[in-house]
Amino acid sequence: MTSLLPVRPSARTRPPGPAPRHRPVALLGALAGTVAAASTLMVCLAVGVIGWFLSDAGVHGAPRDGMRAGALGWLAAHGSGLQVRGVPVDVVPLGLTAICAWAVWRLALRLGEGVSAHGPDAHSISDGERDWTVPAAVGTFFTGYAVVAVVTSSLAGGEIAPSVAPVLGWTLLFTLFLAAPAVAIGSGRAAIWASYLPPVLRYGVRTALGVLGTFLVVSAVVLAMGFVVDLTAALNMASRLHAGAGEATLLTLVNTAFVPNATLFSGSYLLGPGFEVGANTLVSPGAVVLGPLPLFPLLAALPAAGAVPAWAGAVVAVPLLVAAMATARVQRRFPTLRWDEGAMRGCGGGIIAGLLFALLASLSGGAAGPGRMRFIGPFGFDVLVHAVTAFGLGGLVGGLLMTWWQGRTSIPVDAAA
């Protein structure tokens, strides 16, 4: 009887249907770029409206003024700069920039996962077949992001007149340094391409990221210590502004947006060259020369002007120690017994980390107002020289010491057998 019952075709016995149709790479890339830009823009618009209401309880202006302020903040995070009564202000709030960068990274990863089935497979790529999936996705991602940036700049323009060219430049930086690696990682191409690179280069990049990340954490800790020591001065600055609860909240948000800038200033201080907080000023381990400063609570973390203590010069050894420790930690995870490879990993990774930090430091400064505030920030070229030297030497020492230690503690194959 059971043999006479009709048999339903299962998924295994069902004949294969047509291959699933994939959405075009150009469409996915443009959509991801548009969403990455629009998501952070919407957040800034919402914060602008909330700030407009908190500042004067909605008495002056209209909600569109708050939205315009939020759009200008989003553009400022992309380096557009502002014109306040004819005075240029082009310091980039890197806190907002970091949020935009995080959105770019996450959306680009999703884009990479979405286009992973496009193009040739791993075997075809290994055989030398050209694969344009990642370049096409990255190019259209840039196009979608840039369109949102240009439209926002044209709608938010006016007397403040944000500049479009720097916004497109920052969009290109986001695309090259964040979106492109994320798409390659999400699509699996990065693993294929990395297999063709020599191991010393792969581990050198890991070392560079480890050194840079560790040094940024140390710089942030030093900044926090300086701020805590002079917390009373920061509170006095805030009280002299006579700000209400809503205005104090906005002031806190503005200071938070510039914390990454201050962290890079702190790193430049540890490296030795220091930074400026206005014309004819200097903040470095060797000298602190200040003048009248605006009532900005974050500036309370600055050291006191005048003679510096004798131990202040010893802080220049911190970058060397950080680079050596970070290199040793990375090499502990990926050991090597070859002296030349340990040296190239540490020294090369340290040099790359120095270049990256100098790039970030150069983006953290700019004009903050008229007169003596026409420039604040690190001394770019000096920071580059000191960072490459300190991180390179520290990485070299850390790599050689860890190679020696791993060679001493390793067990020979014959003895282990």
Give structural attributes.
417 residues; mainly alpha; two-stranded antiparallel sheet; 4% strand; flat
What does this 3D model show about the protein?
With 417 residues, the protein is mainly alpha-helical. The chain contains 15 helices and six strands. Strand 4 (282-283) and strand 5 form a beta hairpin. The protein has helices at 25-56, 63-76, 94-114, 122-126, 133-156, 164-187, 189-194, 199-229, 231-240, 245-257, 259-271, 317-333, 339-363, 380-409, 413-416; strands at residues 82-84, 87-89, 275-277, 282-283, 288-289, 376-378.
SSE sequence, one letter per element: HHEEHHHHHHHHHEEEHHEHH
- Can you count the helices? 15
Q: What is the averaged pLDDT score?
A: 82
**What class, by secondary structure content?**
mainly alpha
Please summarize the sheet with the most strands: 2 strands, antiparallel
Strand content: under 5%
Low-confidence parts, pLDDT < 50 over ≥5 residues?
1-20, 413-417
Helicity level, as a percent range? 55-70%
Choose one word for the global shape. flat
Termini separation comes to: 64 Å
Widest β-sheet, arrangement of strands:
1-2
What's this model, at a glance?
This protein is mainly alpha-helical. It has helices spanning 25-56, 63-76, 94-114, 122-126, 133-156, 164-187, 189-194, 199-229, 231-240, 245-257, 259-271, 317-333, 339-363, 380-409, 413-416, and strands at residues 82-84, 87-89, 275-277, 282-283, 288-289, 376-378.
